[in-house]
Queue: 3 jobs
Job 1
Amino acid sequence: ELKVEQNPLFLSMQEGKNYTIYCNYSTTSDRLYWYRQDPGKSLESLFVLLSNGAVKQEGRLMASLDTKARLSTLHITAAVHDLSATYFCAVSTSLTGNQFYFGTGTSLTVIP
Amino acid sequence: DTGVSQNPRHKITKRGQNVTFRCDPISEHNRLYWYRQTLGQGPEFLTYFQNEAQLEKSRLLSDRFSAERPKGSFSTLEIQRTEQGDSAMYLCASSRAREGYTFGSGTRLTVV
């Protein structure tokens, strides 16, 4: 079974600081997704990464994918309070078909 | 289109009762998924439909769980003889082909 690990699980950071969330997965993947979840709410799609070396940026968030290392990163630049949420990565492969395997999530708290 | 709609938003039931949840996907999405999310965890795959056909089922989907998508549009997830361990957020998502999912707001089930 494909395993997806995120670290850190909890992250508290001050506004204006930079940080990176890591997502490792156990088998070859051809698609990786990042989602955001606010407390009690559903998941909001942030990024879809489709190939090795893919990099996508939206505002203060930038995601990258290294399929050889089986690693994706979500980099936060100059954090603001509105970014406080739980961030999930999810992986699917041609072998897993239509299932997404989610990481356990990283709970981010940005302190003013 | 207003996105993926799930009803009810919250359900409290007594142990042993049956419950049914409904999901209305985005109309042009032929793929529909059910996931379960417990506190502090990422979503776990339950089942997948392509049009009206249920093509994949997780081992998590015990014989007390049944899902249908009778006309390839909305879907229902029924849990019979609920147990306390069934308490979770049940998330529905839809997509086209292998694109990223659009999630609904979820149904939070509490079994007392």
Job 2
Amino acid sequence: SAVISQKPSRDICQRGTSLTIQCQVDSQVTMMFWYRQQPGQSLTLIATANQGSEATYESGFVIDKFPISRPNLTFSTLTVSNMSPEDSSIYLCSVDRPGPNSYEQFFGPGTRLTVL
Amino acid sequence: EDQVTQSPEALRLQEGESSSLNCSYTVSGLRGLFWYRQDPGKGPEFLFTLYSAGEEKEKERLKATLTKKESFLHITAPKPEDSATYLCAVQAHNNNDMRFGAGTRLTVKP
């Protein structure tokens, strides 16, 4: 399995501000994923981040609102920009660990964001 | 479009009362079907990956099975510590992202 840490674990922010969430992995991985889990909902993929290239965003998510950095193979950041109460969610990063006969994806502990 | 439907939404069991959770899916070329456990306030914890119809995997009181249209997560003699939300997700061959179901919230009463 992969050991994934996220910072901060939670935050309460004011409307109109931005928050940057960090994701650190204990080993090098090719792909990192950012998900959002709104209250009472399941996980929705925001974007896929590969090192050395622009992140790929899913329908409904744009770079101006959710800029992502991937400076190396163990680290990524997601920024939630110009926040509104609708952005209150848990934000999760995940990584894949493909093997010769298996494919698994592991998640970080999440960042619980509340926007007032 | 890939779709994942989990049932029931919520399930309450007595300790020791075995049951099954269902995950129905449609996907254009299944690469893998995943089961996760999620406790409140935490990230999903990986349980199983299933790759082809007929495959089964077990871990303690949990057993996951797969057909071409659905997967079951069987829970045998559950304990209160098995209480959690169980998530199912699918991944297609032509895509790296995963499509998640809404989850089944399991409560096991002592």
Job 3
Amino acid sequence: GNSVTQMEGPVTLSEEAFLTINCTYTATGYPSLFWYVQYPGEGLQLLLKATKADDKGSNKGFEATYRKETTSFHLEKGSVQVSDSAVYFCALVQGAQKLVFGQGTRLTINP
Amino acid sequence: GAGVSQSPSNKVTEKGKDVELRCDPISGHTALYWYRQSLGQGLEFLIYFQGNSAPDKSGLPSDRFSAERTGGSVSTLTIQRTQQEDSAVYLCASSLAGGSRTYEQYFGPGTRLTVT
């Protein structure tokens, strides 16, 4: 079945540091890939998405590129802020089916 | 416009009691999903509705769990004879029609269920 493996957390960085959270997936066919974010005390929000190979999703300074050859969708940001502290989930879906999530990575940014 | 809403936001119940959790999807969204978020298991899929039908119930953990959707809108997740391991945040999401195309799922704020 489909699965998502995400970088273990928690991750702690200083403000303005470079961020990478690794995500790899296993799927038959060509899934769509997502990064969701959960800020403290809030619900899940879509951060960015990519629906086909080589697509780059971007939002709020975050980027991720759909790499079919390495089955990866790593999340990156060049300069993180304290307000980026949250839990980040990588996920995939095929068609109208269920989202399959990674285990989540808790990110803390210190001023 | 209004997002996905869920009620109650918090529910504390005694072991063995039944509970009902409600989800109001975004108007016009024909697909509705229930997920569960718990410390030990992360985010797990429970059930998917397309209209009032549930083509995928594969994530329901036991026959104590059931869900229905009426009028292609509101959905209720019912847990009978609750157990402590049912304690979790139950999330509802909705999206536009499915088929082979993938649409973004929008999540509600969740219902935090605590079984004592």
